[in-house]
Design brief:
It is a single chain. The protein is α/β, with parallel strands linked by helices. It has two domains: about 20-75 and about 335-439, Aspartate Aminotransferase, domain 1 (Alpha-Beta Complex), CATH 3.90.1150; about 80-335, Type I PLP-dependent aspartate aminotransferase-like (Major domain) (Aspartate Aminotransferase, domain 2, 3-Layer(aba) Sandwich). About 35% of the residues lie in helices and about 15% in strands. It contains twelve helices and 16 strands. It has helices at about 20-35, 80-90, 100-110, 125-140, 160, 190-210, 235-245, 300-305, 320-335, 335-355, 385-395, 420-439; strands at about 45-50, 55, 60-65, 120-125, 145-150, 175-180, 215-220, 250-255, 280, 290-295, 360-365, 370-375, 380-385, 400, 405, 410-415. Helix 3 (about 100-110) runs parallel beside helix 9. The chain is globular, with a radius of gyration of 21 Å. About 50% of the residues are buried.
Length: about 450
């Protein structure tokens, strides 16, 4: 079954070493939350607070967080917490009243985009942002067909779950959806840009043969759930040209790579020199507060805006806007995009050095503080999901939190908060080295 790596690392009743207290918590979860939720790790972590790059369990033990990009500027950043509390104590309502906070934030945010991307609409989650992009693309193009990569994850609404193959075989893809291989240089020979564009064109041709008009190509610009594919820079451009030639739009899903994580650029699409029609934002936008958005070119929203009104009770409310503004100000004032570049380069070099001593470390792909490390068996680059799971759970026992991704669940997905330091990298590498020696 395709998945984003979480299933292979999930808690299985009877495994792990849960305390009596945590066993009781698991039982309460089952009773109260039902069967569809999953827990990370063979022995789940009972967390009670966070600060910076650290999370703490009920006994006060500190865990290094190298996974949660939601807390992009660090868990419970005091400036963000203060902004949230300050606005919540004054006024909290939606965008159907005039209020300057959401406009202040919108203008500040749009200042980080090319001038052609000059409208922003607010939602609560990345799933909602992609769902809105889905609706707008259909209205703008008159088409219904969408192209996604083979193990993509774009969200959990009814429409977007049908465009998220990583959710597994239990969530069927829509008849209007076509999947294409991720841009893996080991699978695609020759020029990667041309090869990826050829897959997009093949999907377009298949749609047309079945009477489906293309509406859009949507990609996570670092292909997070596919295994993290960051380059070469510019390879996306031919694929974008192909979907536009067919009358569709290009949607850049920046929910995971956006807000400076890739280091050299604020947004993943900028690494490829392309101009999206729409850009979806989410997770790190509010550092844990539920705020997300969709940035777009004005022409794309014209048809939708003329016929439909958009309203979201909480999307763009004053507290969300104040919180998101504080996050953006922290990224700017603390130089976190540059920190992602510098510390990310240091991190990547440390992993390459470990690879010289541990044969199970295969190809590494990295852009800033977004890294994907293959775990392999033998010289044939055979994916090793079983060893990956042991590594993830071994790091958890060493109090370092991480997860796995990719269609074969063999890629360590490393995306720590943007305040990660070189000392934090050294802490991770030491624990990782010790775990690799054991597994």
């Amino acid at each position: 079954m395709k998945n984003d790596g979480t299933m292979v690392n999930a808690y299985v009743p009877g495994k792990g070493n849960l305390s009596a207290e945590d066993q009781a918590l698991v039982a309460r979860r089952v009773r109260a939350l039902g069967p569809a939720y999953r827990l990370f790790y063979e022995t789940p972590v009972h967390l009670v607070r966070g600060e910076g790059v650290w999370l703490y369990d009920a006994e006060g033990n500190a865990y290094l967080d190298t996974y949660n990009n939601v807390a992009s500027v660090g868990h419970c950043h005091p400036a963000v917490v203060a902004a949230t509390a300050r606005q919540a104590a004054v006024f909290a309502s939606h965008t159907r009243y005039l209020h300057d906070t959401v406009l202040d934030y919108a203008e500040r945010l749009l200042g980080h985009f090319p001038p052609e991307l000059s409208h922003v609409m607010f939602t609560c989650t990345g799933s909602e942002a992609n769902d809105l992009a889905f609706r707008i693309a259909r209205a703008h193009t008159g088409g219904t067909g969408f192209i996604v990569t083979e193990n993509a994850y774009h969200g959990v609404t009814y429409a977007i779950a049908a465009m998220s193959p990583s959710l597994g075989e239990g969530v069927p893809l829509g008849e209007h959806v076509r999947t294409i291989p991720a841009p893996d240089p080991l699978r695609m020979t020759g020029d990667l840009g041309a090869a990826f564009a050829a897959e997009v064109q093949a999907a377009i041709d298949d749609m047309l043969r079945h009477g489906i008009k293309p509406a859009g190509l949507i990609v996570d610009t670092i292909f997070s759930s596919d295994g993290v594919y960051e380059g070469p820079k510019g390879f996306l451009a031919p694929a974008v040209a192909a979907i536009r030639a067919a009358g569709g739009v290009f949607i850049a899903d920046e929910v995971q790579p956006g807000f400076g994580r890739c280091g050299e650029t604020m947004w993943g699409f900028q690494r490829h020199g392309v101009l999206p029609d729409m850009v979806s934002l989410g997770k790190p936008m509010g550092n844990g507060y539920p705020v997300a958005g969709l940035v777009m070119q004005p022409g794309v929203i014209a048809a939708f805006g003329a016929k439909a009104r958009y309203f979201n009770t909480f999307g763009g409310n004053a507290v969300a806007a104040a919180t998101a503004m504080a996050v953006l100000e922290v990224i700017e004032s603390e130089g976190l995009q540059e920190n992602a570049r510098v510390v990310g380069d240091y991190f990547a070099q440390g992993l390459r050095d470990l690879g010289k001593r541990h044969d199970c470390l295969g190809p590494l792909r990295a852009a800033g503080l977004f890294l994907g490390q293959d775990i392999i068996a033998g010289d044939a680059l055979t994916p090793d999901a079983a060893r990956t799971s042991r590594i993830v759970n071994g790091l958890r026992e060493a109090r370092v939190l991480i997860s796995a991704t990719g269609p074969r669940s063999n890629v360590l997905k490393i995306r720590p908060p943007l305040v990660f330091s070189k000392a934090n990298v050294d802490h991770f590498l030491q624990a990782f080295d010790q775990v690799l020696a054991r597994v």
